[in-house]
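look at this fold:
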Amino acid sequence: MTTSLRDSLRRRKPEKRRGPLEPRGRAGLVAADDLRPTGRPTIVPDTNVYIMAAEGTLPIAAASFTERALLFHCSVCLGELATGVANADPSRPTCPALRDHYAALIDAVPESRLIVPDGQTWLEAGVIAGALARMQGFQKHQRKECLNDALIYLSATKAGLPVLTANRDEFDIIQQIAPEGQFIHF
C-alpha cells in the first residue's frame, strides 16, 4: 500500500473548511446509555475508558457496555497509557501498583486484537488534525491530542469498529470531517 498526502488532501479538502465546527447536540450522536445491543458488541476503547475503569470512575452504562463487548485495542491508546505510566511520580506510594496494572493490561492484549495505524492513516489523521487545529484555533498541545484522537478514530474506522469515548466533542468534530467512522460517547 502506498501513502499519498495528495489522496488525503483530495479526500478531506481542508482548504474548503474555514470556520470552526460546533459539536452537534446529543440527539445526533450515539450514547452508551441509549444502546441495548443484542449479542456481543465489538468496540475500540479510547484511552479515557482504560483510565476511568482503573480509577473506578467509568459510568455504569459504559462499564456495562465494555464488560459485554469484545475489545479491540488501538496502539495509540496503549502508547498514551505508557506515556502516563512513565510520567507518574515514582516517589508516590501508588506508582508501583499503577505500573503493574497497566503493564498487565497491555501484556494481556492479544496481537490479533491490536489495531495499529498504517502510513496512510497517519497522513489522513495529520490532515484532519491540521485542519481542525486551524479551524478551531487549537494550541500546540491540543494539536497533538487531536492527532492522537484522529489516529484512534481512523484506525478503528479502518477496522470497521466504533470507538467508545468520554471525549464526545472532540470525536464529534473529527467525525464531521470523516463521517465514515463511528463513536459511542458516555
In short: The chain has one domain: 35-179. The two ends are 35 Å apart (CA to CA).
